[in-house]
Design a protein that fits this description.
The chain is mainly α. The chain has 14 helices and no strands.
């Protein structure tokens, strides 16, 4: 194809592979945090997204996100079943890479985003209802926001920036998690605690590693902004991990490995929208704020007795929210000439746009998610029976066990 850059293309294929690895990483992260009798059920919810979301993305998802425009909200079906995507068609965001690579990269984002939500309603939701929910949520929440922010829709036209998914991935997934928790209700039989912290550590390592593809890859080429996004990703995650560890140590009187790992994920989620638009010093600030504020959000959740089992709202919903807002404050063209300046660089209008956009995305994600669960419940039960919940979803729904013969 004319203008093909093999370096950019190779880099984006690598980044696509890294983002793909994040979904198994999420499965390990969540799997370690639940009890022994629900390990396979939560891991299956992540892995099935790799299959079902790919089918939906191939059929209509890519086209609805990146083909045409309908009222600035959603695309059209001109590229359904990848119609017109050829060896020579260029990527819509960078013509130096093939469109087929762009399709693959964006597909990996679509796979992990709904899987994030599953950590909120562990041990409670039937597999059939989850499959319907996954499909509906992609169509009514994820695809519209991809189009509005990255596909030339209304938020992009308005000047809202989101480098790698503060609104598009983390905020809407985290707010959807909160809506799910409030609809489904509390567990009748709560887990005693994480059954395998080493699995949580393994999952965190895979997520952290994959996140370099998630953030640096969102530049869609190899340049200095790519390097800044890479560095900012690690800085924010590290500072957030230490901030969470420190705050948790102060209040809980112990240094917690799970706290350290959760803090790192909070930092990764929070830097995501800003990674390629801010300086490394700003990434330090974002990381510290993420560690402290997300820890506080989880503490608030506990006080309010919301049964967000794996803190999806506190980490991803709140992290994505403050990441978008802090981007409005800290953005600078000194580190990305194609971006814009934020509040501290004399552009309060951009800050207002970011704040308005993330408030709107929160309302949309909450409303559509809650209504969707209510509607699904009219056709098939969303919540498992008390007996299945007590027995565990692994044996109760899937008739499989993670640890045969284990106590």
């Amino acid at each position: 194809m004319p203008g093909l850059d093999t370096g950019n293309t190779g880099f984006m294929l690598l980044c696509s592979s890294l983002v793909m690895l994040m979904t198994p990483g999420l499965a390990f992260f969540y799997g370690g945090l639940v009890g022994r009798k629900n390990v396979l059920a939560i891991m299956m919810q992540s892995f099935v997204s790799m299959g079902l979301t790919t089918v939906i993305w191939f059929a209509v998802g890519y086209s609805l996100c990146f083909s045409g425009d309908t009222a600035g909200i959603i695309g059209n079906l001109d590229k359904a079943f990848l119609n017109g995507v050829t060896l020579t068609s260029p990527s819509p965001l960078n013509p130096s890479i093939p469109e087929i690579v762009f399709v693959a990269y964006q597909m990996m984002f679509a796979i992990i985003t709904p899987a994030l939500i599953t950590g909120a309603f562990v041990n409670r939701v039937t597999f059939k209802a989850y499959l319907v929910f996954l499909t509906g949520w992609l169509l009514l929440v994820y695809f519209p926001f991809v189009h509005m922010v990255w596909g030339g829709g209304v938020l992009a036209q308005w000047g809202v920036l989101d480098f790698a998914g503060g609104i598009v991935v983390h905020n809407i997934a985290g707010i959807a998690a909160l809506a799910s928790v409030l609809y489904v209700g509390r567990r009748k039989f709560a887990d005693l605690g994480p059954h395998s912290i080493p699995l949580v550590a393994l999952g965190t390592g895979l997520l952290w590693f994959g996140w370099y593809g998630f953030n640096a890859g969102s530049e869609f080429r190899v340049d200095s902004v790519t390097a800044v996004a890479f560095l900012n990703t690690d800085i924010a995650a590290s500072f957030a991990a230490i901030a969470w560890l420190t705050v948790g140590w102060f209040f809980e009187k112990r240094p917690s490995l799970v706290g350290l790992l959760t803090g790192a994920v909070a930092g990764l989620a929070t830097i995501t929208p800003a990674a390629g638009f801010v300086s490394p010093v700003a990434a330090v600030v974002i990381g510290i704020v993420a560690g402290v504020v997300c820890y506080g959000a989880v503490a608030l959740k506990n006080r309010l007795r919301w049964d967000d089992a794996l803190d999806v709202w506190g980490v991803h919903g709140v992290g994505g929210f403050i990441g978008i807002v802090l981007l409005g404050v800290l953005a600078t063209t000194a580190f990305n000439p194609a971006g814009t300046n934020g509040l501290l660089a004399g552009n309060p209008e951009f800050f207002v746009k970011q704040l308005a956009a993330v408030l709107a995305s929160s309302v949309w994600a909450f409303g559509f998610t809650y209504a969707m669960l209510w509607l699904i419940d009219r056709f098939t039960p969303v919540r498992v029976s008390a007996q299945v919940e007590e027995t565990g979803l692994d044996s109760g729904l899937h008739r499989e066990e993670a640890y045969i013969g284990a106590l």
